[in-house]
Design a protein that fits this description.
4-stranded mixed β-sheet, 7% strand, alpha+beta
C-alpha cells in the first residue's frame, strides 16, 4: 500500500484537476494512477470495488476511499489543511456553509453544463456544439459574478477549495463559451487571479490544454468530412 494518498484520475478531467489543485495548495504529494475511461478501465471489477458509481476521481488514503471531487477536496483540506492552510476549508460553520454552497453550485450548475458540451464530442461522435448549449453554459457565469461582489474570491477575502474546484470548471467552460468582459468583469479578474497561482499551470492548465485540444481537434476533423 502506498504511503501517499492514491488518486485515480485522468488529467483532462476538470474534477480531477480540482483535486490536483487542492493537493498542490496543501503541499500534499499524491500517488497518481491514470484511469483510461474511454478504454473502460473505470468499469473493471477492481475499480468498481473502489467506487461502484464508476466515476473519477477516486482517492484511496491508506484504506479510506473517497469519491466525488468536491468530497475529496473537502476531505483533504480537513485532514491535511492545518495552520495557515485551514482557511482553504474553514472550520467556522457559517464560513464552511458558504464554501459548500459554492461547491454545490459547481457540481449542480456549472460542471453539468460543461459535460453536455464536451462529452457528446468525445464519446458519441458529435461534430458540432449546439449554440443553445454554449449560451446555457454562459448563463452559469452570472452566479459566480455575483459571488465575487464581496471580495477577490468566491467566499470573500480568502482562497478556498470552492475557488479551486470552480476554476477547473470555469477554465474549461471558457474554452467553449467565452466569458464576456463587459458582463462579467469580476469573473474575468478572478480567472486571472487563479491563473497566477504558482501551482496552476502544472495542475490545471496542462490537463485543460489536453482536453481542449482533443475536443476541438475532433470537431475540426468531423466538420471537414
Amino acid at each position: 500500500m502506498s504511503s501517499k494518498p492514491v488518486l485515480y484520475y485522468a488529467p483532462r478531467s476538470p474534477p480531477c484537476r480540482a483535486v490536483l489543485l487542492t493537493a498542490a495548495a496543501l503541499d500534499l504529494e499524491l500517488d497518481l494512477r491514470l484511469v483510461n475511461v474511454k478504454a473502460g478501465e473505470h468499469l473493471s471489477a477492481e475499480f468498481l470495488k473502489l467506487n461502484p458509481q464508476h466515476t473519477i476521481p477516486v482517492l484511496d488514503d491508506n484504506g479510506t476511499v473517497v469519491s466525488d471531487s468536491h468530497i475529496i477536496c473537502s476531505y483533504l483540506a480537513d485532514k491535511y489543511g492545518s495552520g495557515a492552510k485551514e482557511s482553504l476549508y474553514p472550520k467556522d460553520p457559517a464560513q464552511r456553509r458558504l464554501v459548500d454552497a459554492r461547491l454545490y453550485y459547481d457540481c449542480g450548475h456549472l460542471f453539468p453544463r460543461i459535460r453536455f458540451v464536451v462529452e457528446p464530442v468525445i464519446y458519441f461522435g458529435v461534430g458540432e456544439v449546439p449554440e443553445d448549449r454554449v449560451t446555457y453554459l454562459q448563463k452559469a457565469y452570472d452566479g459566480l459574478e455575483h459571488c465575487l461582489a464581496n471580495g477577490p474570491f468566491l467566499t470573500g477575502d480568502q482562497l478556498t477549495i470552492a475557488d479551486l474546484c470552480c476554476i477547473a470548471s470555469v477554465s474549461t467552460a471558457e474554452a467553449f463559451a467565452p466569458i464576456e468582459t463587459d458582463k462579467f468583469p469580476k469573473l474575468v479578474e478572478w480567472v486571472k487571479r487563479l491563473q497566477a497561482l504558482p501551482y496552476y499551470q502544472k495542475n490545471n492548465q496542462e490537463g485543460l490544454d489536453m482536453l481542449v485540444g482533443l475536443v476541438k481537434g475532433l470537431l475540426a476533423e468531423r466538420q471537414q468530412k
